[in-house]
Design a protein that fits this description.
With 255 residues, the protein is an alpha+beta fold. Strand 4 and strand 5 form a beta hairpin. Helix 1 packs parallel to helix 3, helix 3 runs parallel beside helix 4 and helix 7 crosses helix 8. The protein is elongated.
């Protein structure tokens, strides 16, 4: 949620800068447009916060339009043409997956737009084989790499979701960045003491075993504190223990 709000702020500021730097608007028009953008951003930010507090899952068909709405201001006053490919699936996405995918795409797009010779950018989502694939492809110089995206913390955000990033750059032809995020926990042999836990529950349990509180865990995994409590309750139920201390002791015993 924090990452999502940060990216929303960055999007609003980038949109304002685009207006103020535009050579197609005079001072008066730029001022009016900037005020309209700022007011709209504030309204959307408040609505976003309310939605984040209420929604635990989002259908892919609804999550992508929210992304599209946040991307359009970035290219509104630039010569770059933005093409959008919505997912052909109504499968529900966990809120942290939807948030993470949107944050990653926005971060990648901001990096793409820093290039001088980009004329077209395609952003698409697809859901298949238990994964969400988010792609950002451009027709730029083909010089973007995983290191280029380092300052945007893309790898960290994906790692928290068990995802990975692929960068395919062809000099002179452009770059395609693909983020793959699993929608379900990988299967673990049931004979293992922790085999009944999902990937995200294991991550939460690791933090519990280190004595971390809900707020710290939420910040580390980029999820809400209520989501941490939900995972913690599931962990106790699946392990058949009565307290977080017992769950932590079991984790240390088998780690």
């Amino acid at each position: 949620m924090i990452a999502e709000l940060t990216e929303t702020h960055a999007t609003a500021l980038s949109g304002l800068l685009g207006v103020l730097r535009s050579r197609n608007l005079d001072d008066a028009a730029a001022r009016v447009t900037a005020v309209e953008l700022a007011v709209t951003a504030l309204v959307e930010l408040r609505a976003e916060t309310e939605r984040d507090q209420a929604v635990a899952e989002e259908p892919a068909g609804q999550a992508f339009p929210r992304l599209a709405d946040s991307l359009r201001p970035l290219v509104r006053y630039s010569p770059v043409r933005l093409e959008l490919g919505a997912p052909d699936s109504g499968r529900p996405l966990a809120a942290d997956v939807a948030h993470g995918a949107r944050a990653v795409v926005r971060a990648v797009l901001l990096t793409v737009l820093e290039q001088d010779t980009v004329g077209r950018v395609h952003v698409g989502w697809s859901v298949s084989e238990g994964k969400l694939r988010a792609t950002v492809g451009d027709d730029g110089p083909g010089e973007i790499s995983a290191c280029t995206l380092g300052p945007q913390r893309v790898d960290e955000r994906l790692a928290a979701l068990g995802g990975r990033l692929d960068v395919d750059a062809v000099p002179g032809w452009g770059t395609t960045v693909t983020a793959k995020i699993p929608l379900g926990a990988p299967e673990i042999a049931p004979t293992e003491p922790l085999g009944s836990l999902g990937a995200r529950e294991l991550e939460v349990l690791r933090h519990l075993a280190r004595g971390h509180r809900n707020r710290v865990i939420a910040q580390e995994l980029h999820i809400s504190e209520s989501r941490v409590k939900f995972h913690a309750a599931n962990i106790l139920t699946k392990l058949g223990v009565a307290s977080r201390g017992e769950a932590s002791a079991l984790f240390h015993a088998v780690a």
